[in-house]
Amino acid sequence: MQPLCHVDESSALLQFKESFIINGSDSSNKLACPLVQSTPTAVSWDGGICDKDTGHVIDLDMSSSCLFGSVNSNSSLFQLVHLQRLNLAYNNFNYSQIPSQGRAWSLLIDEKCTNATLPKFYGLDLASCNLSEFPHFLRNQDELQWLSLAYNNITGHVPEWMWNISIESLRVMDLSFNSLRGFDHFPIPLPWINLAILDYSSNQLEGSLPIPPFTTLRYHIPNNKLSGKIPQWICNMDFSTGA
């Protein structure tokens, strides 16, 4: 009989949990919860889902788990090579600094990580993780369908390499409620050919309005400091702009 989850991946999940400081009085510690439900194709518990056929962990939701710490290049998270969806929203990854060639990131996945180490995600929610810059591991993500970095403390410009991630697959991008000021050489229109929802609202964006792809259904960009003309065709979209 195929086990519900591979022993090595179960161990990796436990190690990942134990690598953080967790508020012992908090009841949202998802990996401490037992197996609760199953479907024809997957077995799940509060926090994770294993594929029922292969036994591999494919989904991990540790949002609102009161995690404090950093994710480094040795993290057992990267042993979950079949992981497709990861939700670490509403945690705090700025509790400690781990040395990394003179640099430590709020979400610390350092440059020693390679393509072979990192899973390919189709969904990634890092909202409210107290990030201060764009996680560099996103450079190698080419299969994302949705990405949320909302409600963080990311400052400065959206880096030019962001225009190259998941060009064919990305459908939702949410960068709202940060402190972004602009963009590094954004293409016109933006390159994601299947994008449906784009949210840059409540930042400090200056300059001209980024032009979304024609596939975009909802474009939210109020509460910024943008200037210049709005193309006529954008007026037919479901979107909002800021002064």
UniProtKB/TrEMBL annotation:
Compartment(s): Membrane
Membrane topology term: Single-pass type I membrane protein
Keyword Transport attached: no
UniProt keyword annotations, A-Z: Glycoprotein, Membrane, Receptor, Signal, Transmembrane, Transmembrane helix
UniProt main location, coarse: membrane
SUPFAM superfamilies, per the entry: L domain-like (SSF52058)
Gene3D superfamilies linked to this entry: Ribonuclease Inhibitor
Signal peptide range in chain numbering: none
Family annotation (InterPro entries): Leu-rich_rpt, LRR_dom_sf, RLP23-like
Protein name, entry field: Leucine-rich repeat-containing N-terminal plant-type domain-containing protein
Organism: Fagus sylvatica
